[in-house]
């Protein structure tokens, strides 16, 4: 199965824009669901930046901070975002309209156990086209649409390499274990149906298989054999960084790689809305 799904022209024209947009009922719903996802059990426990912000501020996060995230930049003005959040049944807005938090605090300890269950219904899909990807937000939305047409998913997370570029691997969390098992049965194995995206054949692995392969790749990289191992996508990983690149990385204020720090989000559509914060 292939997909030619692309974001519609209106969505594309507004992406990354700070210009005001008309908050129709549909736009309000998109805005609210996106913010609720950030605070959900599917994202918050694995989003280092948000988790630390919540911990430091008694659960509160500045709405201006939320509005600065890539997936939120198309929702302007921020005052309208505040109005949307006041309609939420799971979030509350401070009296001055400056901050937002969960009405019911999330049990982070319980979330650890939930993550074990989450991994059981998570698959890794590899070999996506990843050269010359300039707009990660557009790609994120396109892949969310692609997977939502195939099954019922909670989130879609794009993995990145050491240069923060999409590496061709997508982590997909399904709504239920049966849905996950059904997808795996259909698109993997000897009698599997062909799964493709933009004409490129994809491969499907369980999360456990994917993690074992990554671990094996790390071991080979540091085995002393003198050879650099390659991952599923063929990219070198876990190679020591130069002093110059390390210094550069230390100066970054990004919350995650939406997929290293939040994907095992890692971070990582409503469902399926993980992203890397700007």
Automatic annotation (TrEMBL):
Residues 21-110 form the HTH La-type RNA-binding domain. Keywords: Nucleus, RNA-binding. GO terms for molecular function: mRNA binding. Residues 215-278 are annotated as: Disordered. It is found in: Nucleus. Residues 233-245 have a biased composition (Basic residues). Residues 121-209 form the RRM domain. The keyword Transit peptide does not apply. One of its GO terms (biological process) is RNA processing. This is HTH La-type RNA-binding domain-containing protein.
């Amino acid at each position: 199965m292939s997909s030619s799904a692309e974001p519609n022209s209106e969505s594309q024209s507004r992406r990354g824009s700070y210009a005001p947009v008309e908050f129709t009922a549909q736009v309000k719903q998109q805005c609210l669901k996106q913010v609720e996802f950030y605070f959900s059990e599917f994202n918050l426990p694995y989003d280092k930046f948000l988790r630390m912000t919540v911990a430091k501020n008694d659960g509160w996060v500045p709405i201006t901070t939320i509005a600065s995230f890539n997936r939120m930049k198309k929702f302007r003005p921020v005052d309208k975002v505040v109005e949307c959040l006041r309609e939420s049944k799971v979030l509350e807005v401070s009296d001055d309209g400056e901050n937002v938090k969960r009405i019911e605090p999330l049990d982070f300890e319980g979330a650890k156990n939930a993550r074990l269950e989450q991994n059981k219904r998570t698959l890794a899909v590899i070999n996506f086209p990843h050269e010359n990807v300039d707009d990660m937000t557009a790609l994120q939305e396109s892949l969310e649409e692609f997977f939502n047409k195939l099954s019922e998913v909670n989130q879609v997370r794009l993995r990145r390499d050491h240069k923060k570029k999409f590496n061709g691997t997508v982590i997909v969390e399904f709504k239920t274990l049966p849905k996950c098992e059904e997808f795996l049965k259909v698109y993997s194995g000897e009698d599997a149906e062909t799964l493709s995206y933009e004409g490129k054949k994809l491969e499907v692995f369980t999360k456990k298989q994917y993690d074992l392969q990554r671990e094996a790749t790390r071991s080979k990289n540091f085995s002393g054999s003198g050879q650099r191992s390659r991952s599923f996508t063929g990219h070198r990983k876990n190679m020591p960084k130069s002093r110059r690149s390390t210094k550069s990385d230390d100066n970054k204020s990004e919350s995650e790689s939406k997929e290293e720090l939040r994907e095992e989000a890692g971070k990582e559509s409503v469902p399926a809305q993980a992203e890397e914060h700007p």
